Amino acid sequence: MQPTSLYEAIGGAATFRRLVDAFYDRVEQDELLRPLFPPTFDEVKERQYWFLTQLFGGPRLYTERRGHPMLRARHLRFPITLRHAERWLHCMAAAMQEVELPRAAQAVMLERLAGIAQHMVNTPGEEEEA
Ligand code: HEM
After folding, report:
1. CB-based contact 96:11 (threshold 8 Å)
2. Nearest CA residue ID for atom 9, ligand 1
3. Residue 2 pLDDT
4. ∠ Cα 125 87 69 (to 5°)
5. Is residue 21 part of a domain?
6. Is residue 78 within 6 Å of ligand 1 at its C-beta?
7. Measured from the CB, is residue 76 less than 6 Å from ligand 1?
8. What Pfam families would the database entry show (predicted)?
9. Does residue 128 form part of some domain?
10. Is 26 inside any structural domain?
11. What are the tens digits of pLDDT across the range 12-54?
């Protein structure tokens, strides 16, 4: 028997769709994050769905459609500070609670996403400026 991926364990495509919807509903309401994003979220939602699916052991949707993720490079055109990363994670944690992911899955996923979010920081925040 194949070991079950986290992706499958929490409900596969339907769960990841709900998570991504809940997440961007929050980003859309967030005064710090909203200005970085385009007027509509359809495309970024789709890409995030592909990415999270792949990251947590589902089909490799992102790489099939967009090639190597190179996420840091893809985020360089946006000035991302530590505050942005924290806010991003806060929105994601709230979205996970809203869709009622099992607590153990939330912890594993947030830890993984925290590492990636930190890696996206490319701009010093106010607290770091001279
Ligand atoms: C740290 C704070 C973050 C900010 C402020 C941020 C912001 C953004 C913005 C503004 C876009 C582009 C929207 C557009 O197409 O115009 C984007 C794209 C994307 N972000 Fe983030 N992001 C952050 C962290 C993350 C993290 C942690 C992940 C991974 C879980 C991620 C995954 C993605 C993906 C997959 C895309 C689409 C890339 C593509 O194929 O073009 N982001 N993000």
Report:
1. no
2. 37
3. 72
4. 90
5. yes
6. yes
7. no
8. Bac_globin
9. no
10. yes
11. 999 999 999 999 999 999 999 999 999 999 999 999 999 999 9
